[in-house]
Automatic annotation (TrEMBL):
Pfam families: TRC8_N (PF13705), zf-C3HC4_2 (PF13923). Residues 683-729, 756-779 are annotated as: Disordered. The keyword Membrane applies. It is found in: Endoplasmic reticulum membrane. One of its GO terms (biological process) is ERAD pathway. One of its GO terms (molecular function) is ubiquitin protein ligase activity. Its main location: endoplasmic reticulum. Residues 693-703 have a biased composition (Basic and acidic residues). The lineage of its organism: Eukaryota, Metazoa, Ecdysozoa, Arthropoda, Hexapoda. The keyword Transmembrane applies. It comes from Drosophila madeirensis. This is Protein TRC8 homolog. PANTHER family: E3 UBIQUITIN-PROTEIN LIGASE RNF139, RING ZINC FINGER PROTEIN.
Length: 803
């Protein structure tokens, strides 16, 4: 990317920031609507008490009691002392109080309800309040929609809008400057007399009127030239050249001896010309603006019909460069708040931590501010992932690419479902810290998803680089120590709450996942040191992963119960957050509980069925293995033990069991491997002489076994000891490759899709189950798996010859 492209991109981002600032200011005043009916009469909570309640949710029993008391007072069901209004009540509060007393007297559902509504409709105070509120809301809504439309314009249209606004602003700025200059001239002697009398003493005085008017004249001349250059109205040559003179004319004409009332009209007369040009521009651009909006609508409809709504959103997201715009907006907002704190008149010196707390609280005051903070957090998480990726010496990881996006979505959903923008500043800071803590635990999960494949590849590939092993193990140690330290501090310093239970569940889940990855990594390393094929490896891996998935499933149920408790008992005052939490709970219940339970049970049943089928097959005797003198057609490794199918093919028992996860047909001839009514045919004759067994020819697929190197497992010639050791050292990698072949076939047969991450009570997401693939009995799976196995034959043989 060239420097010119980067600069133009930065300019485009900066041009889209002002509309976001306008939207933020409109949201800051609540769209002109009253934000609350009653003032917050609760005493301010001390910092110590707020710190003690850090873990307690905002909707504590005391807060619920206060809300219930306020509800009773609103409907007139409480004591008169509780429902009495303060002397400083607003007109709207007095009206509501009158309505409450009327409801208490007649009842909301009594016959006096109609008279109550009639009284409210004739209440002048309420009518005035509603009329003012309606006007404010309509103005704010118009400003909000205008700013949103300007934000979404194409760059060339955006430049035209800014040129129009700049010309309009220059007109008002010129008027203000002329008024200020005429005020200075009114209080000073006549400048024309000094010029005609050549009174240099007064003219050259540094504090005189001439020196005071010089900046105004220069500014007016510059504003006239700039207006002539950027205005979008008719461009007549004479008018363009005379524009600086028109802007400066009030100051020049005011030097003449004119009546005061005429001098006061000079700024308005000079501003008439640019105002007329601006009005002409508006009238000429109205049709073009409406045409642009209509063309944009047609473009969006055509794009949706051709590519879908998600593609349109993604395309517009990239075109508008929304993440960078939000980051720049939030940075400007924080810099503005920091500057206001720095120049504030205060006898006490500015303290760092209270200032940071104030900036963070103001940084999530509105929805747009939360979006800006989300963009900054997304960038931070992205670079954290890049840092760990660099430390692990890996440069191609999809998990790291999605880390920033998933973190941003998670943080914003947490902010919405906890009602972050509607809380008071003290409670908002506490809730923000809790959300960031939950985000940190989620970040640990994402980091584990980065390091886990690296551990598996290092152990399965027999990577001799100790440096890469040490780096991966260091990250695993970090992922264990960090949640343990966090839980120790939280349980030691804070009281139990629903939020603490959620953080504990996420942290323990991270620890269990890391331990499962380390156990798998250790099993593969142990297998690499073995000289013979380790048939129990698959069982041990299954038990370890089943334990990890069971723990994750139990914590998923715990988080669902915890979220249900929060939804029922702690989200009554936040309707929007409660609705979002309910949706997240439904997603969590389906993907993280139901789908995981169904998949786990399916894997368990398929595995049990495969074990039962394998146990029914006969075991090959050493004489049969010597006579067969070939490798397993699934993993291409020598067979020291094997199972014999009814079609007389030899396979490792563990390899055949993995194949049975996919289908019940033979990997070589695709014949059904067993019939219940022909089980006796599967038992081979074990009594023939060794000469007969040596001459026996077993049918097998020549396309797969023709070029295989024949070795007898009973050879003990010293010259081939090193070759046997080399073959044994490659057994594990071939087994892992065979597992990938079977899993690929299962994926093609079942078309299993990965579950999408989602938040529950305080963010929940789906992790990979790492279970064996779901079996399928379709012939398409057999074709895919066989083709994959055949395509790897040459690769394995080349590797074997090189070794």
């Amino acid at each position: 990317m060239s420097m010119r492209t980067k600069v133009l991109g930065l300019v485009d981002v900066m041009m889209r920031v002002p509309p976001v600032l306008v939207i933020d200011e409109i949201l800051k005043i609540g769209m002109g609507l009253p934000t609350r009916f009653y003032p917050d009469t609760s005493p301010p909570q001390s910092p110590v008490a707020e710190d003690v309640g850090f873990l307690a949710d905002a909707d504590t029993p005391g807060a619920a009691a206060e809300a219930f008391a306020a509800l009773k007072a609103f409907f007139g069901l409480g004591d008169e002392a509780q429902s009495s209004m303060t002397p400083t009540a607003s007109p709207l509060e007095q009206t509501i109080d009158n309505a409450s007393k009327k409801a208490m007297t007649n009842g909301m559902l009594s016959t006096g309800f109609n008279s109550l509504m009639s009284e409210l409709s004739h209440d002048e105070t309420l009518a005035d309040v509603l009329s003012i509120t309606t006007v404010k809301f309509m103005i704010c809504l118009f400003g909000f929609l205008s700013a949103a439309c300007i934000f979404m314009l194409w760059t060339r249209h955006l430049v035209m809008v800014y040129m129009f606004l700049t010309s309009l602003g220059l007109t008002f700025l010129s008027y203000w400057s002329n008024v200020s200059a005429l005020a200075l001239m009114e209080q000073s002697p006549c400048i024309l007399e000094d010029l005609m009398s050549l009174n240099t003493t007064r003219l050259l005085d540094s504090g005189g009127v001439i020196m005071s008017l010089a900046p105004h004249v220069m500014a007016q001349w510059f504003m006239g030239m700039l207006f002539a250059y950027i205005h979008l109205g008719p461009r007549y040559e004479l008018l363009q050249k005379s524009m600086p003179i028109i802007f400066t004319s009030p100051i020049l004409i005011a030097m003449l001896p004119l009546p005061p009332h005429v001098v006061q009209l000079l700024p308005a007369i000079a501003g008439t010309t640019p105002v007329i040009l601006t009005l002409v521009t508006m009238m000429c651009s109205a049709m073009e603006a409406s045409r642009t909006v209509y063309n944009g609508y047609q473009y969006a409809m055509n794009f949706v019909s051709n590519f879908g709504l998600s593609a349109l959103i993604e395309n517009e997201w990239q075109r508008l460069n929304v993440p960078n715009v939000l980051r720049v907006f939030w940075t400007i907002r924080i810099i503005q708040g920091g500057y206001a704190l720095a120049i504030a008149d205060s006898n006490e010196p500015l303290q760092l931590f209270p200032a940071i707390e104030k900036l963070l609280v103001d940084g999530c005051e509105t929805l747009t501010a939360v979006l800006g903070m989300t963009g900054v957090i997304s960038m931070i998480c992205h670079y954290i992932g890049r840092g760990f990726q660099w430390f692990l010496m890996t440069y191609d990881n999809d998990e790291e690419k999605s880390l920033g996006t998933v973190s941003a979505v998670l943080f914003y959903i947490l902010a919405l479902q906890t009602g972050l923008t509607s809380l008071s500043p003290e409670k908002r800071f506490v809730r923000l810290c809790r959300n960031l803590c939950l985000l940190m635990t989620a970040l640990l999960h994402f980091l584990h998803n980065i390091v886990s494949p690296i551990l598996m590849s290092l152990s399965a590939a027999r990577n001799p680089s100790r440096k890469r092993h040490a780096r991966a193990l260091t990250v695993c140690a970090f992922l264990v120590v960090t949640p343990v330290s966090l839980l120790y501090y939280l349980w030691l310093q804070r009281s139990i709450s629903t939020w603490l239970l959620a953080v504990t569940a996420f942290s323990v889940e991270v620890i269990v996942k890391v331990l499962v990855s380390l156990a798998t990594y250790t099993l593969f390393l142990l297998d690499a040191r073995r000289q013979f094929f380790w048939e129990k490896l698959d069982d041990y891996l299954y038990y370890v992963r089943a334990f990890g998935n069971s723990v994750e499933f139990c914590f998923g149920i715990l988080l669902f119960i915890n979220g249900a408790w929060i939804l029922v008992f702690e989200s009554a005052q936040n309707a929007t957050g409660g609705a979002i939490r309910a949706i997240m709970m439904c997603i969590h219940a389906y993907f993280n509980i139901w789908c995981e339970a169904r998949a786990g049970w399916s894997v368990f049943m398929k595995r049990r069925s495969a074990v039962h089928k394998i146990s029914s097959l006969p075991e090959a005797t050493p004489a049969q293995l010597q006579a067969f003198d070939d490798v397993c057609a699934i993993c291409y490794q020598e067979m020291y033990s094997a199972k014999i199918t009814r079609c007389r093919h030899f396979f490792h028992g563990v390899c055949l069991r993995k194949w049975l996860y996919v289908q019940d047909r033979c990997p070589l001839c695709h014949e059904i491997m067993m019939y219940t009514d022909k089980a006796e045919e599967n038992v081979p004759d074990a009594e023939p002489a060794e000469a007969d067994q040596a001459e026996r020819v077993y049918p097998r697929d020549d396309a797969n076994n023709a070029g295989s190197t024949r070795r007898s497992p009973e050879r003990s010639v010293p010259a081939e000891a090193s070759e046997a050791s080399t073959t044994a050292s490659t057994s594990n990698s071939a087994l892992v490759y065979a597992e990938s072949i079977v899993e690929a076939a299962a994926a093609a047969a079942e078309a299993r899709t990965a579950s999408v991450s989602s938040s529950s009570s305080n963010a929940s997401y789906i992790t990979a189950s790492n279970q064996p693939p779901t079996p399928s009995a379709t012939s398409a799976a057999a074709a895919v798996a066989t083709a994959a196995a055949s395509s790897t034959t040459h690769i394995f043989r080349v590797t074997q010859d090189q070794q």
